[in-house]
């Protein structure tokens, strides 16, 4: 066994010797995360005879030309090219594989000691990670998983390892933080955290990108989770900073219902209440799935009676149309929301208008969000520009194709806030009319 004399950075040391079952380095270019990743696997196999590990990457060419070559270069060994495996003298083995769920599914009967996902942000969802978790059942030493990744907005890596975790600052200037929650550890660093190991001209070129390619600079060099090269997320975590609200509501409440469309989608029901001074609060949220429209309509009526709501906003573009027809027979004022219609010269349709209206309201303190699932859902909302420069919110089907969950909670709070435009505060039940909004609308103010 070779003797190693390696001086690790703090984030590398924490990752390699993590006691948590799942560990990650999510860091910038030039931070040595691939070495840390492979060294952790190598070190474990050296110390645990008969162990079995799996290292995967999405694309075969990247696995062959980068991951495997790095492994051979770092440790001075050769991997069996016929089966892409390396076996240690003590019987431990590391397998190298590539692909998505279809490719990796052939390993469903394997019993692993550990797994590693390189460049985990290349995967659009956490399906691979959770599939491999189910394979951690080999007898012997401890069983664990790891990932390394570049920051890529609020993707699945961020949600799994960063969101909701307790943050410990190691070196804020170098972007070195440790994020911990039960069974999870994530270590972060920007490129300058490893400047002492990088050529001076390389560092100078990285700094030049702040002016020449700012989005690339903040995402890949400064390791910012708030930037992507397209920078197309509508909401950021900073939007949800706490605001000052009254402690007692007025009792005027608006409910919204987003009806499930596909297998993993949920029907979501939310209630917001008016607290005066143009301020609203999210006060209730629940969801259900795999239920017929009759159940959804009945549950909505039951909840609306329980929470004494004044109106219900229902998505009328899809399956919600059936609930609209049923609930119109109730005592409640029903607003049928048609997000796919409307629009103006700046916004593609009503959905775009109302999402931007929602964002402005949250930032300015007109709406307080109580539930984390609402915030998490809003953080996945993306926008783009049409050829005519209209802003359009990326649709649910498009989001699913990119590995994001359907933003059911986000759509529901958006529709609830849409209902504030029709709030008649003299009404305690069915509204006989719609109030006229003034020309000045503070929610649109820049």
Keywords:
446 residues, alpha/beta, Rossmann fold, Nucleotidyltransferase, domain 5, nine-stranded mixed β-sheet, 14 helices
Question: Any overview of this molecule?
Answer:
The protein is of the alpha/beta class and 446 residues long. The chain has two domains: 10-221, P-loop containing nucleotide triphosphate hydrolases (Rossmann fold, 3-Layer(aba) Sandwich); 237-444, Nucleotidyltransferase, domain 5 (2-Layer Sandwich). The chain contains 14 helices and 17 strands. The strands form three sheets. It has a nine-stranded mixed β-sheet with strand order 3-4-2-5-6-1-9-8-7, sandwiched between helices. A six-stranded mixed β-sheet has the order 14-13-10-11-12-15, sandwiched between helices. Helix 1 packs parallel to helix 2. It starts with 9 loop residues before the first helix and ends in a 28-residue tail after the last helix.
User: What is the gyration radius calculated from CA atoms?
Assistant: 26 Å
Could you name the ranges where pLDDT drops below 50 across 5 or more consecutive residues?
Answer: 427-446
CATH fold group of the largest domain: Rossmann fold
| Counted beta strands | 17
Chart the SSEs and their pairings:
Layout: H1 10-16, E1 22-27, H2 33-47, E2 52-57, H3 60-75, E3 85-87, E4 93-98, H4 101-104, E5 114-117, H5 127-133, E6 144-149, H6 156-162, E7 166-171, E8 176-181, E9 184-189, H7 200-212, H8 214-221, E10 253-258, E11 267-274, E12 280-288, H9 293-306, E13 311-315, H10 320-327, E14 333-337, H11 350-364, E15 367-368, H12 372-378, E16 383-385, E17 391-393, H13 396-401, H14 408-418
Parallel strand pairs: 1-6, 1-9, 2-4, 2-5, 5-6, 10-13, 12-15, 13-14
Antiparallel strand pairs: 3-4, 7-8, 8-9, 10-11, 11-12, 16-17
